[in-house]
Design the sequence.
């Protein structure tokens, strides 16, 4: 090994050690809860384009299921609420940098996400996969998908299961408009996608005679996100969510926003009662 | 086979180069389906476009101005519009207008991919044939006429065989183009290589690895085509002609 190499590895090691130290330092200082109380404002990142969870109403205000949750949290802390619209690509970064204190933005729990931000349990909601098809299609169980043409959106995690386990012939497109067009043209008889998405379609007169045909599978819990090292704030979120489940507050919100009942919420309500 | 899959598994653990198509049976079957569909699509479109291309080239020399005009506009339309727009047009605009057979559309993704790529390639092939036909010496046609050949006989027995040889290099070029263009069928979910690869990489998040694999596969397909076409050119050469 040359001297150069040794010097290189040495500097790598030093850099790693320094990074570790600085992380250790940071964790000692983070106390979002105290920070929020001192500022008198809680900044929450929410979606502004995902009806009915977080969206902009005609007057320009952000409202929705998740906004109600943010409001309730702010009320509990006795502070004002400030909403920041986020998208999937920046929502975790905002929490990490401290631009938002908390994120409630339709984010599903994923192990690799939990490495970046703290996602306190229990989760407040869960979307699942289901199939949207004609009501007279005769679909009753997932096994009925065998050899049927089913449309999907590229990148959805349940596409593989529909194809591999249930034997559907998957027609996967890039976006929702292409799928809806293929569905109406009869290129596929059903559309496998997030159960949360179909709530909007079912109320659309263009799709009368169509409906959600299969029981939801593979629920993906949605979690709020806090700074990873802030255990105190995470504990507050956990306690509050547990109470929401216990009192049936989330079930009430589901009704308020006209969302098809998610089995997850009923389960959790039973569990914490 | 087991050794190969074990080796690729080991590779993904040690180096992070994740080629699931070598050890995950579902991904492998999708990849192979994609490969077969790409080859099938290319082969069917090639044969159809050669046949139709010859017809169009023949109609291009028709006595009737109307036929010449129609054929000419078809060629211009398909040569001068984006192939992706054509595929979308057939699948999303034409397909819903056609009658359904037993609740099913007349043609699926693969069917429309074949139709639209064939029409595109035919437009190019017919132009190549036309150039080839025009390169056949007038004196040869006159000689055939004086021997009592009919117009169709001259076309099939004299002009086409010669024109075919003149046009082989250009046809080869066109075939390579065809194989490359089959990737556009991805947009209408025809199960060709790019479509299958994109599904694998969006599930396994091995985008870069699959992209490399994909590119190498096309290099391999096109290398084989080039070798075969070179051989065919040598094989069909008429000694002393065209030099």
Sequence:
């Amino acid at each position: 090994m040359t001297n150069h190499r040794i010097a290189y590895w040495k500097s790598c090691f030093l850099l790693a050690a320094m990074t570790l130290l600085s992380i250790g330092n940071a964790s000692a200082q983070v106390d979002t809860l105290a920070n929020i109380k001192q500022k008198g404002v809680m900044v929450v990142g929410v979606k502004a384009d995902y009806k009915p969870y977080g969206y902009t109403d005609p007057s320009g205000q952000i409202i929705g299921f998740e906004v109600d949750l943010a409001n309730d949290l702010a009320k509990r802390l006795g502070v004002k609420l400030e909403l920041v619209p986020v998208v999937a690509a920046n929502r975790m970064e905002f929490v990490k940098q401290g631009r938002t204190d908390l994120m409630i933005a339709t984010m599903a729990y994923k192990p690799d996400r939990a490495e970046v931000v703290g996602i306190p349990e229990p989760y407040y909601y869960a979307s699942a996969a289901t199939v949207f098809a004609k009501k007279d299609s005769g679909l009753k169980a997932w096994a009925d998908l065998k050899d049927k043409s089913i449309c999907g959106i590229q990148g959805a995690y349940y596409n593989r299961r529909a194809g591999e386990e249930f034997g559907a012939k998957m027609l996967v497109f890039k976006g929702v408009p292409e799928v809806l067009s293929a569905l109406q043209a009869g290129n596929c008889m059903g559309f496998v996608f997030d159960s949360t998405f179909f709530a909007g379609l079912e109320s659309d007169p263009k799709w009368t005679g169509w409906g959600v045909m299969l029981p939801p599978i593979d629920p993906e819990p949605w979690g709020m996100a806090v700074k990873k090292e802030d255990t105190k704030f995470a504990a507050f979120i956990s306690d509050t969510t547990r109470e929401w489940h216990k009192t049936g507050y989330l079930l009430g919100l589901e009704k308020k926003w006209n969302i098809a009942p998610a089995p997850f919420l009923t389960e959790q309500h039973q569990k914490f009662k | 086979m087991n050794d190969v899959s074990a080796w690729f598994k080991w590779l993904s653990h040690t180096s992070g180069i994740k080629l699931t198509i070598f050890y995950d049976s579902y991904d492998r079957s999708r990849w192979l389906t994609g490969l077969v569909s790409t080859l099938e699509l290319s082969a069917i479109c090639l044969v159809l476009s050669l046949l139709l291309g010859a017809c169009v080239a023949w109609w291009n020399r028709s006595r009737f101005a109307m036929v010449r005009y129609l054929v000419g506009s078809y060629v211009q339309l398909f040569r001068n519009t984006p192939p992706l727009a054509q595929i979308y047009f057939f699948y999303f605009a034409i397909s819903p207008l056609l009658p359904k057979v037993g609740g099913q559309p007349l043609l699926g993704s693969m069917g429309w991919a074949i139709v639209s790529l064939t029409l595109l390639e035919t437009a190019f092939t017919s132009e190549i044939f036309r150039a080839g036909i025009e390169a056949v010496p007038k004196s040869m046609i006159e000689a055939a006429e004086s021997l009592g050949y009919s117009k169709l006989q001259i076309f099939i027995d004299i002009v086409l065989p010669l024109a075919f040889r003149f046009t082989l290099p250009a046809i080869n070029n066109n075939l390579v183009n065809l194989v490359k263009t089959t990737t556009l069928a991805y947009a209408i979910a025809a199960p060709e290589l790019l479509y299958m690869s994109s599904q694998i990489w969006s599930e396994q998040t091995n985008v870069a690895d699959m992209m490399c694999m994909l590119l190498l596969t096309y290099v391999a397909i096109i290398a084989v085509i080039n070798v075969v076409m070179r051989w065919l050119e040598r094989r069909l050469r008429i000694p002393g002609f065209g030099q």
Q: What stands out?
A: Chain A has two domains: 30-124+223-272, 127-219. Chain A has eleven helices and twelve strands.
